[in-house]
Sequence to fold (457 residues):
Amino acid sequence: MPKTAAENSEYKNFLTQYPDIAEVEAFVVDASGVLRGKRLPVAGIKKLFSGGLRMARSVYALDIYGNDVLKAGLVTETGDGDGVCFAVKGSLKPVSWLDRPTAQVMLDMQNVDGTEFFGNTRRILARVLERFHAKGLSPVMATELEFYLYSIDKENRGYPAPPLSPKTGRRQDAVQTYSIAEMREFDAALSEIRAACEIQGVPADTVLSENGPGQFEVNLLHSNDILAAADQAVYLKRIVKGAAEKHGLGATFMAKPYSRESGNGFHTHISVLDKNGGNIFAGKTQEGSEALHHAAGGILKHMADCMAVFAPNINSYRRFGEGTHAPTKIAWGYDNRSVALRVPDSDLENTRLEHRVAGADAHPYLVPAVILGAMLDGIEKQIKPPPLLTGNAYDSDAETLPVTWGKALQRFENSEFIADTLGADYRGLYAACKRQEKMLFESRITDVEYNAYLRDV
Fold:
């Protein structure tokens, strides 16, 4: 049962260290990964650490446009009742990119009677982790998040354009993968991101220029505190957007902002430690242990059922295709970036799996929850994976992922694995949110249709 998530001393020590703080932004993460919450005066911080902040439970069940989703069952059926939110321990941090001295805090929601709220995705991930810990196992995770910087140009009517270099004024319209010069062009924004990560305790490691104009990737260090690692992914996305805006740029984690450029991925590296700190995936050869193979077997078995989590909206599916650096086949391989599940080349002690399917628009708590749930199912049931694939997975006869939104949602809604891992009630909530979002999208007439048909038919 969730309790108050932090001690009163945390906020008192924080205000002693940062006496100029005037406001605090308190938020939860909804079903689409959107941060929703309230801004409080600094005097209101205390309630987040003691009596709690009330907020409608339905805030976890909005579509991407911010509309109530009636079929999620949290509005009219329940009287749109409140839950109680408490600060997550250690989440009170300064927001360094704003002019006004501001703090932020992550919230955990529970029911008013103190019981768990089924819609709280942070608690869903925590329950998956509890299953590992009950077996004396500790997962270790590192994430890689890709994003685009873009120019904020009113003449583009809200459409992104590759960014103008702050130093030369030249538009970054070419791909410069791993380019040091490209990163130097945007040194101010990237340095702001690094500094904000240090202030907020986000363990940012390498930053690199990626496969699109103005596209970058930030890698977070491996951690055996998976819940904290997921929190840090939330903070990182907020930091990147805030730092970019401070320097006159936009930043997006949209899966496919440009039709002819690479999409944004959310790659996850995972291994598992036993109670003695040994990596259970490490074997005597680079092929890894039986536990590695069983974990891979579970992940691959349930991958199609999880696709609606890895690709949560209509734009997500534009990321998949040959030559896009996004996998389309349910396959695994050794040091092979064309597969969905890669065993990176490493020394035996650091043997791990890299899950390459999710887009950067995917949910920071649900992605590790379903990957770890599938992994544990594979280990418990000793599920055997298919043979390691060599060569180009796109040309293989391996099963194809459901790379349309409708098919992915159908697999998700009918999946017993999803019900067991996320909870049957949450499966219904998430599907209802995405079905409504899909219906609203399909009801809109696009610019492409007007350009093609308005005059000529």
